[in-house]
Amino acid sequence: MSKHARLESSIIRSLTRILREEVKDPAVNFVTITGVKLTSDLSFLTIYYTNLQEDRKEAVAKALDRSKTFIRGALGRHVQMRKMPELLFKYDASLETGNRIESGLKEVLKDEE
Length: 113
What we know:
The chain is α+β, with helices and mostly antiparallel strands. The protein has one domain (3-112): GMP Synthetase, Chain A, domain 3, CATH 3.30.300. 53% of the residues lie in helices and 19% in strands. The chain is built from three helices and three strands; from the N terminus they run αββαβα. It has helices at residues 3-21, 57-78, 94-112; strands spanning 31-38, 44-51, 86-91. The chain has a three-stranded mixed beta sheet, with helices on one face. The radius of gyration is 17 Å and the shape is globular. The chain starts with a helix and ends with a helix.
């Protein structure tokens, strides 16, 4: 595992802990980090997340944006990096897509019976 990959793995663990234990905004309670992508120059960190509450997607996005500065500071305390990257949050729709495909396949299989 490369140094970059180990750093990303450490960031995921730290972000999960920060969101669960330190961020006080209730809209962030049901957020799950699905992955991170750190640029090679360490200037940007894209954080992919999903939310268990489908109807609150917009509220969660706003809450994460409001908490961005706090999360960045907390991440700096948890992960040793010479430069703390700018955080970019992106909703990970792959679970929704997978669920839609699965339900579509079930419908097709049910129709064939």
